[in-house]
Structure formats: structure tokens, C-alpha cells
Amino acid sequence: MKVGYLGPKGTFTEMAARGLFKEYELIPYRTIPSCMDAVAESEVDVAIVPIENAIEGSVNLTLDYLIHKQRVPIIGGVTLPIAQQFLVHPSNSTKKVEKIVSHPHAIAQCHDFLQEKYPDAEWEYMNSTGTAADYVSKHPDLNIAAIANELAADEYGLYTLHSNVHDYSHNRTSFIVLSRQSEEIQISGPDHVEDKTTLMITLPSDFSGALHQVLSAFAWRKLNLTKIESRPTKTGLGNYFFIIDVEGLMDDVLIPGVVSELEALGCGVDVLGSYPCFALSVNKANV
Ligand SMILES: O=C(O)C(=O)C[C@]1(C(=O)O)C=C[C@@H](O)C=C1
């Protein structure tokens, strides 16, 4: 089986992919869209991409690409503890840092640290923390640092100038696993923590109580929602759809009941996936 992930080597997504799919061939992609295109076009059997961080919130690029461009079923979810390291080239003997490179989410997770230690440094956003570490390793002449993980420090031979620079200790990121072969590929493992069903709901029009009506359909069936998020439909200012995570797998009665009820009310309902979720520890993901 081929597993695509947001690369290059040394990203957090690689850690998550290793944690779930260690025995398979792991293939890095430079961007989230190219990784999702690869699974949509069956270049790989599954793809793993980040979806949400505990400090910074949703990875909008993943959500939007999934909704608007490549609607591949979600077949699994996985969360990983995130520890950010401040990495410089080993030949940067002055340890002077004028520019910091990383994924926007990684920089956002370290705002307090950066404001305190490097308030005047410039930031440059990159496609992933791994790309940033690779960039620093290729530019020994520049006074730059990457924010990335310890796997990247090893992979690109960088020196850890400051460890654990993320501002909140309970930093975690969730990733989703996508596959066209949702019937054939079953993910299992000892780190299984819960099951989830993700729905995308579009309201018929903007009227008072519309969202309340949607939520009631879940509430009276005692279906627990673990996330509700709105994203623009991209059809006009103020037009949104909702992404809702429901605890539990798609059953024969309750969730189909919600879908029929909401459709009868004129809502659009799409099931994006019904899947097991896993929680990895760093050691597990690093092996
Ligand atoms: O750049 C990486 O290492 C990624 O896997 C992406 C990503 C993200 O999109 O949030 C994943 C985990 C961290 O939160 C920072 C960056």
C-alpha cells in the first residue's frame, strides 16, 4: 500500500503517517493540495494531511480543498502531540537570527516565544516545517532559523538553539486519512480512542433559527457533537456551510434519521466520512 503525506521528510505529518502506517511505503508531497490530488487520482492508496491544531485551529487549506476540489472519503483520524524546536544551521556560529521560516501554523504556535526572543526577526511562511528545515540546511550563509520538530533536526543535520518553543504545553494536531478505497482499507490499532462521523451541511437560506433547527435534529436523538465549524461556500459574502463531527460511527437509524430530517427541511447534507480516530504519543510516532 502507498501512503502519501505532506512532506518533505521530517514533517509532523510524516510522524503521524509513521505512527499509523509504519510498514507501508510512505511518499512525501510538497503541498497539501498535491497530496490530496495524489489520492484522488489513485497515485497513492491513502493520503494523510493536517486538519486542526489545538492552538491555531483548523487548517483551512485542507478543509477547503476537501470540500471544493477533491471530495475523497475520510477513513481515519489521528492526533499527535506537537513540540516545536528552534533550529539553526550548525555552522551559524554567531547564532544570530534575522529571519524565521516555517509553516504558518508552526509560527503561530510560538508567537509568545518569538515576540520575547526575536521581536525584530522577519517571518517567511513555507509549505511545511520540513520544507523550512530543508531550506535552513541548504543556506548556511544566511542568519535564519526554522521552527520544526526533532525528526527534522536529525534529517537535515540542524542544531537545536532553543527546545520546545511552542507557547502552550498541550499542543496537539489532528490529521485526517483520505482514501477512495474506503470499503477495503480498514485502519486499526491499539491507539484507537473514538469513532467519528463528519457531515457537511448547507442551510437552504438564511432565516432565524436555521442553525437551531439543524442542531435540534442531533440533540433530540442524543447524538453528541464534538465539533462545529463554518466555512464560506465561496458563492458570496455571508454564505457559509457547516462541518459537524458527530461522536460514533454511521449507524442504521440515528444518523440516517438526522440526514433525512435535514434534507426534508431543505438542507444539503453530505457525509464526508465515518471513521475510527487514533491518538499517538510522540515515541510511537517517532519509531
Ligand atoms: O509542517 C508540518 O510539519 C505539518 O505537518 C503541517 C502542520 C499543520 O498544518 O498544522 C502540522 C502540525 C503542526 O501543527 C504544524 C504544521
List the helices and strands and how they pair.
Elements: E1 2-6, H1 12-21, E2 25-29, H2 32-40, E3 46-53, E4 57-58, H3 60-68, E5 74-81, E6 85-88, E7 99-102, H4 104-108, H5 111-117, E8 122-125, H6 129-138, E9 144-148, H7 150-156, E10 159-162, E11 172-178, E12 192-202, H8 210-219, E13 225-232, E14 240-247, H9 254-264, E15 268-279, H10 282-286
Parallel strand pairs: 1-2, 1-3, 5-15, 7-8, 7-9
Antiparallel strand pairs: 3-4, 3-11, 5-11, 6-9, 6-10, 12-14, 12-15, 13-14
Helix pairs in contact: 8-9
Bound molecules: prephenic acid.
Which keywords apply here?
Alpha-Beta Plaits, binds prephenic acid, 287 residues, five-stranded mixed β-sheet, ten-stranded mixed β-sheet, D-Maltodextrin-Binding Protein, domain 2
- What is the CATH T-level topology of the largest domain? D-Maltodextrin-Binding Protein, domain 2
The average pLDDT value, as a whole number, equals: 94
Number of strands: 15
Instruction: Tally the structural domains.
Output: 3
| Overall morphology | globular
Indicate the structural class: alpha/beta
Report the major sheet.
Answer: 10 strands, mixed
CATH-level-2 architecture of the largest domain? 3-Layer(aba) Sandwich
Low-confidence stretches: none
| CATH-assigned homologous superfamily of the largest domain | Periplasmic binding protein-like II
SSE sequence, one letter per element:
EHEHEEHEEEHHEHEHEEEHEEHEH
- Per DSSP, the total helix count is 10
List the ligand species. prephenic acid
